[in-house]
């Protein structure tokens, strides 16, 4: 039985014991499609997150996907091209049920302007990372990543946590909305600026943001008082970051940590230039997108200059994966790359061991299934501090959005072990229904993005996109239920290629085999990717866990 969705009443949250499709694998994928819209930012337009990341190309395409998932047999494979179903092939019961390629443009054509034109003609849709392949789970999907970044900074500079520290950031959208809660969990006093009052309200309503300040003076007083008392606090401010960051710098105030997660990657549909209202921006998207691009870039220049000022004054400043530095460089800020990218600065040693953002969703819709798996994780990985600390915190602080779900940064071997054990709990009826296992595309073997994931690699292979393509092929060979290859639209055009995977634990022996092969091979390729680039941690992991790495003599 679906449950009501107060945020988007027309998009109920799927769940219950009744099957509409011919099997649980198909039904689970259908529920994941429904779920990305239920927790999405603008489901009426099929938009899930990151400005233009869509679940399907159009409503007719969406309808055809739903009808096919319901009607298809287990030995068929649905082929989706940029959010539109284009074929149903006869394969075999251990082949993927769904394969997708979303928004992959040929090299010289992979540009924002060409993407917008193709999207206007209805020929492509951007899948974001997790929107087009139905793996998005709301702000909870990146919250551990954001929390781990804050904790690495805390360990590096502030003695273990962010108590008494002022964090400045912007963006309270689908992904950026995780920041206030992650900051509070790291014990910081965090100020989050967003230009859209509706986004700030939503994050408050769903429990990710505590307060919304009426103006900058009040916001600063609130976070500074909380920091002085070492009291964790999250405060939202409705304003343009390109106004607020320079103003804070002008006042001589220097936060301890500064970042930004506005949708700066997309200069037309994402970033809002200063001096323009939201209505004016909406109108310019169709009437004069070139002007909007120019104005967004000009605002980003001021925004990033202020970030650089904070960095010069000693703040820990980092790029949180939204391409803001690249647009600043294009706008003339030659030293914008002095700001480090979060992957290289804090998380790469984890990726070398294929430890990354793994997640699972309870297809039953019952939160108790996630609690049972939480207990299993705590018991199975009792010696893994990152994971046990995270699960305890998540249980206390992270509200479920949509289908009950959990994220945990698990690595090679760990993911397979957990998923197979969960499959056993589905089989013996401990869990109410199947569980879907997936991960962010921003994972060890599955993303080439020279300005986010693969910047400054040791061997210089930043722009080599072979790795995610090999990963997707290995996942198909391993029988994952859904495999997707994505590239950038809008701001990310020409910047990235990534692979996504979902495997359903439906309690059958066949699912046990699929989980074992797909999850093990996915993380094996992650370790191999970093071992090949010459990272000692990955070479060590490759040898220790025998991932099948071939080293030339
Ligand atoms: P979103 O479109 O859901 O939200 C973006 C928010 O930015 C909106 O609320 C918008 O009002 C706000 N905004 C735009 N311009 C602004 C300005 N000048 N001042 C203040 N607020 C402004 O996007 P999202 O899903 O939250 O993603 C945000 C960015 O993070 C994207 O660039 C996305 O690609 C990137 N991202 C990074 C990671 C990561 O792992 N670090 C993960 C996912 C997404």
TrEMBL record:
The record's section on Pfam families has:
Urocanase (PF01175), Urocanase_C (PF17392), Urocanase_N (PF17391)
Q: Where in the cell is it found?
A: Cytoplasm
Molecular function terms, GO-annotated: urocanate hydratase activity
Looking at the record, the residues that make up the Urocanase C-terminal domain are 349-543
Occurrences of domain Urocanase Rossmann-like (ranges): 138-346
Pathway where it operates:
Amino-acid degradation; L-histidine degradation into L-glutamate; N-formimidoyl-L-glutamate from L-histidine: step 2/3
Q: What is its main location?
A: cytoplasm
Catalytically driven reaction(s): 4-imidazolone-5-propanoate = trans-urocanate + H2O
InterPro entries xref list: Urocanase, Urocanase-like, Urocanase_C, Urocanase_central_sf, Urocanase_N, Urocanase_Rossmann-like, Urocanase_sf
Q: Which residues bind NAD(+)?
A: 174-176, 194, 199, 240-241, 261-265, 271-272, 490
EC numbers, comma separated: 4.2.1.49
GO BP of this protein: L-histidine catabolic process
Ordered alphabetically, the record's keywords are: Cytoplasm, Histidine metabolism, Lyase, NAD
Details of cofactor binding? Binds 1 NAD(+) per subunit.
Gene Ontology CC annotations of this record: cytoplasm
Known cofactor(s): NAD(+)
Domain called Urocanase N-terminal: residue spans: 17-134
Question: What is the purpose of this protein?
Answer: Catalyzes the conversion of urocanate to 4-imidazolone-5-propionate.
Q: Which family does it belong to?
A: Belongs to the urocanase family.
Record protein name field? Urocanate hydratase
Q: Which gene is the coding source of this polypeptide chain?
A: hutU
């Amino acid at each position: 039985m679906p449950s009501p969705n107060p945020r988007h009443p027309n998009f109920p949250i799927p769940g219950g014991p009744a099957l509409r499709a011919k099997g649980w694998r198909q039904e689970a994928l259908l529920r994941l499609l429904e779920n990305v819209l239920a927790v999405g930012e603008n489901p009426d337009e099929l938009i899930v997150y990151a400005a233009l990341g869509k679940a399907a190309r159009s409503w007719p395409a969406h309808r055809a996907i739903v009808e096919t998932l319901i009607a298809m047999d287990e030995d068929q494979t649905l082929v989706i091209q940029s959010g539109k179903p284009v074929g149903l092939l006869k394969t075999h019961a251990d082949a993927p049920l769904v394969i997708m390629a979303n928004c992959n443009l040929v090299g010289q054509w992979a540009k924002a302007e060409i993407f917008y034109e193709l999207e206007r003609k209805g020929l492509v849709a951007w899948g974001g990372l997790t929107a087009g392949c139905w793996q998005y789970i709301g702000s909870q999907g990146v919250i551990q990543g954001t929390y781990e970044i804050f904790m690495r900074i805390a360990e590096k500079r502030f003695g273990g946590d962010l108590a008494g520290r002022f964090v400045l950031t912007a963006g309270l959208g689908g992904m950026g909305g995780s920041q206030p809660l992650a900051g509070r969990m790291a014990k910081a006093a965090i100020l989050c600026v967003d230009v859209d009052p509706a986004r700030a309200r939503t994050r408050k309503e769903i429990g990710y943001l505590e307060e919304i300040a009426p103006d900058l003076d009040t916001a600063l007083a609130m976070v500074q008082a909380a920091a002085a008392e070492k009291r964790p606090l999250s405060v939202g401010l409705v304003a343009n970051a390109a106004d607020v960051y320079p103003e804070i710098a002008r006042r001589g105030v220097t936060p301890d940590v500064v970042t930004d997660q506005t949708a700066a990657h997309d200069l037309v549909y994402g970033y809002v230039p200063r001096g323009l209202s939201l209505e004016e921006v909406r109108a310019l998207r169709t009437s004069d997108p070139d002007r909007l691009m120019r104005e967004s870039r000009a605002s980003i220049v001021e925004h990033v200059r202020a970030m650089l000022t904070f960095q010069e004054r000693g703040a820990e400043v980092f790029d949180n994966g939204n391409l803001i530095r690249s647009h600043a460089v294009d706008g003339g800020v030659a030293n914008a790359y002095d700001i480090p990218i979060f992957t290289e600065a804090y998380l790469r040693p984890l990726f070398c061991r294929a430890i990354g953002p793994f997640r699972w969703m309870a297809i039953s819709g019952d939160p108790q299934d996630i609690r049972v798996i939480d207990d299993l994780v705590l018991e199975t990985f009792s010696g893994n501090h990152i994971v046990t600390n995270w699960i305890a915190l998540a249980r206390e602080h992270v509200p479920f959005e949509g289908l009950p779900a959990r994220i945990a940064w698990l690595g090679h071997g760990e993911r397979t072990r957990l998923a197979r054990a969960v499959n056993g709990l589905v089989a013996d009826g401990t869990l109410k229904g199947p569980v879907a296992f997936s991960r962010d595309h921003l994972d060890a073997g599955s993303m080439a993005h020279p300005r986010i994931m693969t910047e400054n690699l040791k061997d210089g292979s930043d722009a080599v996109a072979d790795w995610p393509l090999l990963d997707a092929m290995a996942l198909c060979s391993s029988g994952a239920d859904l495999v997707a290859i994505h590239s950038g639209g809008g701001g990310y055009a020409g910047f990235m290629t990534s692979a996504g995977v979902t495997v359903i634990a439906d309690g059958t022996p066949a699912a046990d085999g699929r989980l074992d092969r797909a999850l093990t091979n996915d993380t094996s390729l992650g370790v191999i990717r970093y071992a090949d680039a010459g990272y000692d941690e990955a070479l060590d992991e490759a040898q220790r866990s025998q991932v099948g790495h071939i080293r030339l003599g």
